[in-house]
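Might you be able to consider the sequence and fold that I enclose below?
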Amino acid sequence: MKVAIHQPNFIPWLGYFNKIHLADCFVFLDNVQFEKQDFGNRNRIKTPEGEKWLTLPIKIKGKSTQLINECEIHDTSKTLHKITRMIECNYRRAPYFSKYFLGLSEILKSGDTQMVSLNMQIIDWACDIFGIDTKFIVASKLQGITESGNARNVQICKAVGATEYISGSGARDYNDSDSFERAGVKLVYSEFVSPEYSQCFGPFIPNLSFLDYLFNEGADFFRGMSKI
């Protein structure tokens, strides 16, 4: 069984969904420490002024070492309304905006105060639209995971019965290939290059949130694509 592991990011890029597509089982790593300036609470969209960050402000007072599944969105209603409006204002003229925006806006208007829960809802919604049927597991619900770092990923793979671990290419220096080999898990890398596609507002900008592709090109990217 092919397994991938990743934190539940906020409106991730296409490469994130490529890892989900390649896997038979995708583990949401929800019990690691929250890091500022990461992709757990922010991502980029395209505007007439170029790329712009959409950010979920997180309550951090007195919570400097909180886990990501403990993160609460600051001023949730106002924040999610602002993000919804920013998406609408910048993509309302995109070809597929009217087809998909309502589903996204319903999630954003749900009032979910937890960052991880909101992120997983958006990812699950996107996978349904993209036709990705990979099984999801939440790491914090697994028993017996006591290690950290690379050793934790090996433990998770063993816990879910992985025969193959799909890693992002950026983790080559981080992964301990010998540990995976000793555990009987084949280590493979996902080499994803963002395709160039039609965008609004001038020259192409790669690696934006999946929303940019979805609203401009539709949801057929992964349909018919091999898992190999």
